[in-house]
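FAQ

Q: What does a record look like?
A: Structure on top, sequence underneath. For example:
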């Protein structure tokens, strides 16, 4: 408590609730601007249903931060984050595991390194306790900013406190997570190593299906029992993270065109693409665990064991974690947020991370960068500015603040959120063109106080 008392004595101060990806990034950015930061995190006193480690910046499901290709939307977002001095991306690169063109990490080393960096930062004080209320004058004073970065599984008490302040309804819905398997329980006489369209050894393990095996699998999956939702819970999922059984309900071929897509993955035993595949990706550096790529599910545990044993090569699979479903909370951003991630009418109360209405580890972290910088500028009395809509950060802000409120849904970053092209461009040149324009616009923004490069 002495350290906390000392921190409060020194101005300017930025307070943050939630030490996940967004909260840690916001703390890092605000501290780099010269602010003192008080970071409130409820672990290890209390854990959400998806958090299990006492570390900060815990990755609750996949260990992948998705594509690193500079001409993809999420690759561009990461490039911008690198330019903005992101702690999370720097540590992810330090603890990456092989995953083809994706940036995947050893989740334990990743979280441990971020925890140590934050704990040892001379301007950051971490306080471990659950925050259950927000004072009635919370956020009225912009010089005393507070960032709420409590994520999709924000505790009920705090969600209610936020709802009372915003005066807006918040939505609750469900996300599903994919199982993890012990690598030594895989049947390697069936499963083969390959990355899609890659000549090298490949970073993925592939479980090949023929037509009959696929048919039997989807029949079993279609009849399997899921965990029931409570009567008041409306089942809404992110399109990018749909449970496999929800995808299957859209048609028998949906999985073959989604996570079970076989193209570019010839089976070395036949030289041909199989009819369908399930892909497995390293979960940790040691490689003794793999996750089922895109296989998030809300089947009951016993049904997962029964149905997934029908996947060729997984007949004796030992699951170290089974898939499950979880609540996800976010605000109706177009109604609630300013372009600086402040709650309207409460200039000193900002949101960061998934609760803003973005979706995904990388997007949540990016909103931590912006919230941390904005809060620091408020505390320091500096003017605020936003990155151009041509940047991936600006495109996400545009989604949050300019979408139609009535139909607002969380989104991953994608080029559909960017301004339309002034003239036609061949498809294969578009990503590169977007990236060039975005990085130039970001460099321009970096000449402003909010966008300035970190020391
Ligand atoms: C089950 C699930 C699976 C997901 N899987 C993926 C995935 O595979 N890939 C992907 O890109 N995205 C995934 N997401 C979406 C999302 O990107 C991640 O949840 C991401 O971690 C969000 O970052 P965040 O910083 O906003 O929240 P979090 O990382 O959840 O951090 C919030 C922190 O706030 C703390 N906290 C909460 N309430 C309080 C309180 N009252 N007081 C103090 N501290 C509090 C929590 O303990 C936590 O440490 C998933 C989400 C869920 C719910």
């Amino acid at each position: 408590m002495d350290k906390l008392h000392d921190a409060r004595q020194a101005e300017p101060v930025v307070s943050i609730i939630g030490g996940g990806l967004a909260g840690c990034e916001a703390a890092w950015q605000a501290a780099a601007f010269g602010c003192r930061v008080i970071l409130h995190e409820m672990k290890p006193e209390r854990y959400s249903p998806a958090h299990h480690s006492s570390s900060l910046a815990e990755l609750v499901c996949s260990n992948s931060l998705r594509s690193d290709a500079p001409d993809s939307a999420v690759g561009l977002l990461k490039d911008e984050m690198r330019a903005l001095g992101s702690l999370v991306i720097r540590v992810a690169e330090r603890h990456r595991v092989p995953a083809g063109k994706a940036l995947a990490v050893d989740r334990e080393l990743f979280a441990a390194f971020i925890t140590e960096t934050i704990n040892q930062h001379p301007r950051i004080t971490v306080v471990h306790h659950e925050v259950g209320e927000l004072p009635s004058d919370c956020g009225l004073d912009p010089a005393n900013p507070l960032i709420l970065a409590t994520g999709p599984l924000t505790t009920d008490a705090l969600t209610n406190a936020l709802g009372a302040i915003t005066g807006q309804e918040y939505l609750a819905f469900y996300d599903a997570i994919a199982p993890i398997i012990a690598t030594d329980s895989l049947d390697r006489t069936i499963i083969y190593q390959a990355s899609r369209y890659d000549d090298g050894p490949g970073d993925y393990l592939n479980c090949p299906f023929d037509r009959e095996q696929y048919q039997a699998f989807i029949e079993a999956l279609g009849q399997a029992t899921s965990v029931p939702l409570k009567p008041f819970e409306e089942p809404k999922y992110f399109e990018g993270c749909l449970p496999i059984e929800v995808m299957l309900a859209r048609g028998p071929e949906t999985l073959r065109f989604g996570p079970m897509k076989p193209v570019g993955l010839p089976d070395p035993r036949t030289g041909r693409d199989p009819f369908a595949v399930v892909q497995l990706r390293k979960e940790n550096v040691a490689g003794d665990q793999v996750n089922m790529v895109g296989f998030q599910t809300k089947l009951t545990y016993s049904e997962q064991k029964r149905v997934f044993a029908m996947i060729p090569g997984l007949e004796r699979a030992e699951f170290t974690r089974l898939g499950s479903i979880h609540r996800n909370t976010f605000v109706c951003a177009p109604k609630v947020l300013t372009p600086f991630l402040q709650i309207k009418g409460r200039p000193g109360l900002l949101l960061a991370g998934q609760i803003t209405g973005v979706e995904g580890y990388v997007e949540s972290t990016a909103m931590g960068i912006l919230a941390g910088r904005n809060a620091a500028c408020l505390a320091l009395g500096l003017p605020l500015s936003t990155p151009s809509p041509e940047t991936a950060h600006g495109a996400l802000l545009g989604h949050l603040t300019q979408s139609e409120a009535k139909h607002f849904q969380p989104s991953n970053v994608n080029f559909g959120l960017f301004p339309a092209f002034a003239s036609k461009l061949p498809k294969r040149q578009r990503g590169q063109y977007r990236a060039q324009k975005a990085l130039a616009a970001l460099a321009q923004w970096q000449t402003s106080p909010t966008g300035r490069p970190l020391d």
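Q: Is there anything notable about this one?
A: DSSP finds 13 helices and 17 strands in the chain.
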